[in-house]
Description:
- By secondary structure, this protein is an alpha+beta fold.
- The chain has a single domain, classed as Roll (Pnp Oxidase, Chain A), CATH 2.30.110.10.
- It has helices at 3-15, 55-62, 100-113, 116-120, and strands at 20-26, 32-38, 40-42, 45-51, 65-71, 85-95, 126-139, 145-149, 154-158.
- The chain starts with a helix and ends in a 10-residue tail after the last strand.
Amino acid sequence: MSLDQKIKAECEGFLSGFHSLLLATLDHQDEADLSYAPFVDHDGHFFILTSQLSSHTVNLKRHPTATVLFIEEESACDQIYARRRLRFQCQARQHPRDSDTWRSLIPLFSARFGDIIDTLSTLPDFQLFGLAPLRGRWIKGFGKAFHFEGRMQRNTSHLNPGKKTASD
């Protein structure tokens, strides 16, 4: 199994345990703003349904880039300094209510999060964004950090140039 395939399998397994993501955006003063959003993982993108009243929605409309973070629960980690984490730099795209993407994704949100989506999706301030991963980093412990392109698709490399595999 190639390094790309091994890291992709590890990361996809890690992602499967999450229902929300941490979301960093840039505000109107180009300062970092950190929040979270429930998400649907579909077709290689992270989709969020979020209110225009949320700062991250305003930020994404103004500056359509974001950093997304998934991080191991503190109570589940062996070492607080080495929590497993997966980070993506993403390009954001808003999908209007009359789009095929909206029509196909809202049922996926309902299946994942239940009846609350029936209400949220009818509120005029809720917006659907797709976050497309451009590149990322998988950190699974001390000296076990990997960079990759896309959504763990290609050019995986160990951040320690002396390392060549993901087997540690």
